Amino acid sequence: KDGDPMRVCVERYGFLPTDKAAFKGEIPAIKNMVPFEPFDFYIKRKLYVHNMGHATCAYLGQLLGLEYISQAIDVPEIRLIVQNAMLESAVALAQTYQVPLDGIVCHIEDLLYRFTNKALKDTCARVGGDPGRKLSPDDRMIGSSALALEQGTTPAYIAVGAAAGVHRYIKEAEMEQGMESAKKVLSEVSKLDVDGKLAAMILA
User: Fold this and answer.
1) What's this model's pTM, rounded to 2 decimal places?
2) Alpha helix (H) residue ranges in the chain
3) Could you tell me if 164 and 56 are in contact, meaning their C-beta atoms sit under 8 angstroms apart?
4) DSSP-based three-state secondary structure for 38
5) Rounded distance between C-alpha atoms, residue 119 and residue 107, angstroms
6) Which residues contact 71 (CB under 8 A, 6 or more apart)?
């Protein structure tokens, strides 16, 4: 059906996490449904692993003038940064929710493979869109970094993605690129102490 404007393409996906605490009575046995409590783990895993890694890939891809996520993740340096940023989040999530790390690592490997899908034609511009929201205190870049620090993990790679996100924010806001603009964004958008550890890592 190539060329058919009505064609719809989707990725294979057969896994449905559900909020175990929200069920009334006996939980039905549905194939590939995974009841889990606290469900907040899956919400944070989506935001701090998937969304954060995706945005990091987009922002770094744009810095190199690349159009698609699949192009960006094929750059070895970007893949290394994205993978390690996701691992930093994974370690923090495993410690916070007392879940096995190996399951999150397998999820990361699956995501990295999905990022390479050229057929999606997913652009860095779309994935990195609305950088102000993505740099807000509880969202993917800053929220994941804060959780990592809380659990004793240094978010060195997430900070690289956040810095690239700050660069895009400054560019879209038509601010002058430089340290003072970056400090302003981290203070006003991310609500960070510009003299704190996380801000220092991002500014560096």
Assistant:
1) 0.91
2) 40-45, 52-63, 69-73, 76-97, 101-115, 124-127, 131-134, 140-150, 156-172, 179-188, 197-203
3) yes
4) coil
5) 21
6) 61
Omega cis (within 30) before 137: no
Residue 123 has phi, psi (to 5 degrees) of -95, 150
> Assign residue 98 a region: left if phi > 0, alpha if psi is -120 to 50, beta otherwise?
left
- Of the candidates 40, 167, 171, the one whose C-alpha atom is nearest the C-alpha of residue 96 is 40
Q: What is the pLDDT of residues 15-69, one digit of tens each?
A: 899 999 999 999 999 999 999 999 999 999 999 999 999 999 999 999 999 999 9
Task: Name residues whose C-beta falls within 8 Å of residue 90's C-beta, 6 or more positions apart in sequence.
Answer: 49, 101, 104, 105, 108
H-run or E-run covering 18: strand 16-19
**In the block, which residue shows the tokens 């800053």?**
142
Sign of the CA dihedral with 74 first, then 80, 136, and 183 last? negative
